[in-house]
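agent> call fold_tool(seq_1)
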Amino acid sequence: MKVFGCKFYVPNNDKESLGKFDEKPDVGIFLGYSLSSHAYMVYNKRLMTVEESIHIVFDDTNHAEKESQRIHAEEEEHNIILKNLENCLEK
């Protein structure tokens, strides 16, 4: 199961003739699962369309980075609380 709204890439499989410096994948947003097939419902940012596709690659790096930042923030908060408790006990 993928998170709704996560970033993904759709390869341009000869949909258009690409130039030498054109990007090969399109970037989009995951909207959900298709009701009629085993495809994903996706929003293609470049074409600004909603389409169904089974050939997409999810970008999980952004999710992992946010999770890492959240854990780091929680650790800092716990350290601050421990320091405050130590200061209170010393008094």
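agent> call fold_tool(seq_2)
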Amino acid sequence: MGEEPIFLTRAAEGLDRRGFSLDEVEKMIAAGVIDADERFELIEGEIVPINPQAMPHLLMKGRLAWALKSPAAADLDVVQDATVVLGSRSFFDADILVFRANRTRRYVSPEDVLLAVEVADTSHARDLRTKAPRYGAAGVAELWVVELNERQTYVFRGPGTAAWDAPARVGFEAPLAPLFLADAQIRLSELV
């Protein structure tokens, strides 16, 4: 059995770049090439640094995770900064993940994710244009992009359908309920 061929990505200027797989990234971390505490995501084989988290981002993330955890079923995990693997060449560290606990897996898989949340204050373009389509293509059931500057949440549902491409926009004052918890009435204005 031969080695996996080198994977290339193409940068905006048209030049090829060497892409990486999850397995290769884990080996680089083990070898000390990448620091184990370094914050990044793997997007289509490219290692992409994550911005530092400002206080409004941290507060919304923590408060929303708590609001989701309180009424969630006991067999669901609600965690912050969790890695979801979307394939061998992509993984994201979602701000909040709600998923079915499966302790036999090393990482969270898209089919276990009931809700992924990305809080955007400086990452609006990346969350909506880069990450949202990949979450949908991987089959994540629901994605919220909580846009702090606009004070609205982009709600993506129905992965693999036209509905995913046209997210609902819910203002912070309006009630918001995840699919897995239809009776919830979360108002993000109360969490800011």
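agent> summarizing second result for user.
Strands lie at 7-10, 16-19, 40-43, 46-49, 76-87, 90-100, 113-120, 142-147, 152-157, 168-171. Residues 55-190 form a domain with the tt1808, chain A fold (CATH 3.90.1570.10).
agent> awaiting next instruction.
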